[in-house]
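User: My collaborator sent over this chain with a note saying "see what the structure looks like." That's all I know about it. Can you take a look?
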Amino acid sequence: PLLKDKGLSLYCVDLPGHGHSSHLSAGQSYYLFWDGVHFLRRIVKYFNWEEVTLIGHSLGGGIAFLYAAIYPNDVKKYISIDIASPSVRNVAKMCDLLGHSVDRFLSYESKTIDQMPCYQYDEMVDLVFEAYAGSVNKQGCEIMLKRGMKRATHKEGYLFTRDPRLKTAALGFMTIDQILELASRIKCEVMNIRATIRTKLDNPEYYDLILDTIEKQAKKLERHVFNGTHHLHLNDAESIFPNIHRFLIS
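Assistant: Without extra context I'll predict from the sequence alone. Here is the result:
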């Protein structure tokens, strides 16, 4: 909203399985970061955009990284908030989880709408607030739930709009070698915003290594650290807004 108030035009996307977008059909799997590139490319082609500027938080920031690396001549700038690239997981841990993730995915796929948990509004807000363990305040939870919840039709209350299969999407993560190769292909202007209260990462030392690799050939790389949690853009948008606005219009 702060950017819109400055006259900037933004196109916001609910990826499949998120917000108000449809879920993938039964039998299809989510690959999170890679899905984002696939659908973002569809959107760009649909509107015949020749050059884009991207802003993304967390998953969205990882998708912006990938898109800028894969289509380096088609991205003018991108801003990533509290993420340097798609998540780089511990390889052994990732392999250990694969079978369990696939089985959970199939389990969720077999559930009917009647089996989905239903909540009252305040109960749902509290549930999301507790799940993020202090990363996002109550107001931020309500903002997310504007597109993250809907009235249930089979009983009184609300359902989450997200596809529950997203919770088991452990496939499609990359190794650090793949990430660094992709980072070395980014040419555009980049801004990275990081929170002081860091998200727990398997390999936290990779964050700056990835940015260092981007910086070697990118047109520009700005690094900023702001007081706050992973959801600082929701909790205190005014603190990061001036830097983002300046970067976008410069």
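A starting point for your reply to your collaborator: The CA atoms of residues 136 and 231 lie 5 Å apart.
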